[in-house]
């Protein structure tokens, strides 16, 4: 497993993260356990901010909270000076409960409900990223009821799609998100905003993909968006104040992944902006990294349980978690690397497949992991689980969701409590007709 941040092998031969021996973490907090390297999270946020500060661009960096949203994470984001991108009422509620400044929150999503829009308006968030015409009408109606003028960006599908190294340009991108650029939907949305006394259009948003390891796609997106900006200025007299280029910056999950440092992405974007816009028309540039901030900072610790060998076929090693705490291998065929945390200094000697304990054949975390001799009771550490693992955690098979701890400078702090069995049934209700009836005693 590739080590990130403060991860290292300590003098006991154990995996250590944030100055904490992972075997001690397991004894204290149990397994499965999400461990988040706080210093690495902060460093990633600062890398994006410092990269922009070295340019002549006006900018904002927002953390995409869908990657990992908790009260404690919101506090880290606030302390580091970033904005917060939310995509649901739950994420907004979490941010506000953490006392995150509403004026640094903006709201994404392709199907915002009236309740979500109302909560955002009432909280006074910075703006909404409007996704479709239905939403424009909803925003206008609810803001008018409140006597408000609502600031928005229009999400666009610019016809640039990134698949790691492969960039595809199409006239009309097929996506559930955003106003299509090729068909003229964006221009019609701009016209409606310009005619409204409620909708205050400030600019545009686009997102070209995820796990992007090169910069060409962002250059293409800037060029496409610059054309839109010029067209809207000429046709409607609209001056674009903000251009949000989304996220999608890749991380290293396994061998073969070669992500760039944040500064490389920012430098390429800054160069493309300078080429595409004159200094007078240059908008403020926003980015919204999520995975690239928390992904590599997360490690999941499991206890090894049963071991099953099929001679000449495969050796299965089962752990006490699985697709309930890491859905991505089953959902996306995502790949991960692992080590035995309690044998981190031992030489690998066998190839095994890491199985979860859920009742699904597809509940496999890693198909071929090269590890030291595995025994029941070992601690397996799976790296790069900071993004979309806790976020997608579920209760399939009535499995309680794991705890989350932040580690830094030799201390570990609980930020999400482990669910209990009582938590699992806390929302269940037995109808009166199904309640056990008391049988009268015989006289």
From TrEMBL:
<dbReference type="InterPro" id="IPR009006">
    <property type="entry name" value="Ala_racemase/Decarboxylase_C"/>
</dbReference>
<feature type="binding site">
    <location>
        <position position="388"/>
    </location>
    <ligand>
        <name>substrate</name>
    </ligand>
</feature>
<protein>
    <recommendedName>
        <fullName>Diaminopimelate decarboxylase</fullName>
        <ecNumber>4.1.1.20</ecNumber>
    </recommendedName>
</protein>
<feature type="binding site">
    <location>
        <begin position="288"/>
        <end position="291"/>
    </location>
    <ligand>
        <name>pyridoxal 5'-phosphate</name>
    </ligand>
</feature>
<dbReference type="InterPro" id="IPR002986">
    <property type="entry name" value="DAP_deCOOHase_LysA"/>
</dbReference>
<feature type="binding site">
    <location>
        <position position="328"/>
    </location>
    <ligand>
        <name>substrate</name>
    </ligand>
</feature>
<keyword id="KW-0456">Lyase</keyword>
<dbReference type="InterPro" id="IPR029066">
    <property type="entry name" value="PLP-binding_barrel"/>
</dbReference>
<feature type="binding site">
    <location>
        <position position="360"/>
    </location>
    <ligand>
        <name>substrate</name>
    </ligand>
</feature>
<feature type="domain" description="Orn/DAP/Arg decarboxylase 2 C-terminal">
    <location>
        <begin position="34"/>
        <end position="386"/>
    </location>
</feature>
<feature type="binding site">
    <location>
        <position position="332"/>
    </location>
    <ligand>
        <name>substrate</name>
    </ligand>
</feature>
<feature type="domain" description="Orn/DAP/Arg decarboxylase 2 N-terminal">
    <location>
        <begin position="40"/>
        <end position="294"/>
    </location>
</feature>
<dbReference type="Pfam" id="PF00278">
    <property type="entry name" value="Orn_DAP_Arg_deC"/>
</dbReference>
<comment type="subunit">
    <text>Homodimer.</text>
</comment>
<feature type="modified residue" description="N6-(pyridoxal phosphate)lysine">
    <location>
        <position position="66"/>
    </location>
</feature>
<dbReference type="InterPro" id="IPR000183">
    <property type="entry name" value="Orn/DAP/Arg_de-COase"/>
</dbReference>
<keyword id="KW-0457">Lysine biosynthesis</keyword>
<feature type="binding site">
    <location>
        <position position="248"/>
    </location>
    <ligand>
        <name>pyridoxal 5'-phosphate</name>
    </ligand>
</feature>
<comment type="similarity">
    <text>Belongs to the Orn/Lys/Arg decarboxylase class-II family. LysA subfamily.</text>
</comment>
<dbReference type="InterPro" id="IPR022643">
    <property type="entry name" value="De-COase2_C"/>
</dbReference>
<dbReference type="GO" id="GO:0008836">
    <property type="term" value="F:diaminopimelate decarboxylase activity"/>
</dbReference>
<keyword id="KW-0210">Decarboxylase</keyword>
<comment type="pathway">
    <text>Amino-acid biosynthesis; L-lysine biosynthesis via DAP pathway; L-lysine from DL-2,6-diaminopimelate: step 1/1.</text>
</comment>
<keyword id="KW-0663">Pyridoxal phosphate</keyword>
<comment type="function">
    <text>Specifically catalyzes the decarboxylation of meso-diaminopimelate (meso-DAP) to L-lysine.</text>
</comment>
<dbReference type="Pfam" id="PF02784">
    <property type="entry name" value="Orn_Arg_deC_N"/>
</dbReference>
<keyword id="KW-0028">Amino-acid biosynthesis</keyword>
<feature type="binding site">
    <location>
        <position position="388"/>
    </location>
    <ligand>
        <name>pyridoxal 5'-phosphate</name>
    </ligand>
</feature>
<dbReference type="InterPro" id="IPR022644">
    <property type="entry name" value="De-COase2_N"/>
</dbReference>
<feature type="binding site">
    <location>
        <position position="291"/>
    </location>
    <ligand>
        <name>substrate</name>
    </ligand>
</feature>
């Amino acid at each position: 497993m590739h080590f990130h941040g403060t991860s290292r092998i300590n003098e006991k031969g154990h995996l250590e993260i944030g100055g904490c021996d992972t075997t001690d973490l397991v004894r204290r907090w149990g397994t499965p356990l999400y461990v988040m390297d706080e210093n690495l999270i902060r460093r990633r946020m600062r890398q994006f901010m410092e990269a922009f500060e070295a340019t002549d661009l006006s900018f904002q960096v927002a953390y995409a909270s869908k990657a990992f949203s908790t009260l404690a994470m919101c506090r880290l984001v606030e302390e580091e000076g970033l904005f917060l991108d939310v995509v649901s009422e739950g994420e907004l509620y979490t941010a506000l409960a953490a006392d995150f400044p509403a004026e640094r929150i903006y709201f994404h999503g392709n199907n915002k409900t009236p309740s979500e829009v109302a909560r955002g308006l009432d909280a006074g968030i910075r703006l909404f990223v409007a996704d479709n015409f239905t939403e424009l009408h909803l925003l206008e109606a609810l803001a008018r009821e409140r006597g408000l003028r609502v600031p928005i960006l229009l999400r666009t599908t610019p016809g640039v799609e990134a698949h790691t190294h492969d960039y595809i340009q199409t006239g009309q991108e097929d996506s559930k998100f955003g106003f299509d650029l090729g068909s003229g939907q964006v221009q019609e949305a701009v016209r409606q905003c310009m005619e409204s006394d409620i909708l205050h259009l400030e600019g545009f948003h686009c997102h070209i993909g995820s796990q992007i390891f090169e910069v060409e796609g962002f250059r293409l997106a800037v060029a496409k968006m610059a054309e839109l900006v010029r067209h809207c200025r000429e046709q409607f007299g609209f001056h674009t104040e903000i251009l949000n280029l989304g996220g999608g910056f890749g991380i290293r999950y396994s061998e073969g992944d070669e992500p760039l440092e944040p500064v490389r992405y920012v430098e390429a974007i800054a160069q493309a902006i300078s080429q595409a816009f004159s200094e007078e028309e240059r908008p403020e540039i926003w980015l919204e990294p999520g995975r690239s901030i928390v992904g590599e900072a997360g490690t999941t610790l499991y206890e090894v349980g049963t071991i099953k060998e099929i001679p000449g076929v495969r050796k299965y090693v089962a752990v006490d978690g699985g697709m309930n705490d890491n859905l991505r291998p089953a959902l996306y065929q995502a790949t991960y690397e692992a080590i035995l945390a309690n044998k981190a200094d031992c030489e690998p000697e066998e190839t095994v497949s890491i199985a979860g304990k859920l009742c699904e054949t597809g509940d496999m975390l890693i198909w071929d992991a090269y590890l030291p001799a595995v025994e029941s009771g070992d601690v397996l550490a799976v790296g790069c689980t900071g993004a979309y693992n806790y976020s997608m955690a579920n209760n399939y098979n009535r499995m309680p969701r794991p705890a989350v701890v932040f580690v830094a400078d030799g201390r570990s702090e609980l930020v999400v409590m482990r669910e209990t069995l009582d938590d699992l049934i806390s929302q269940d209700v037995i109808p009166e007709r199904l309640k056990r009836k008391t049988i009268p005693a015989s006289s």
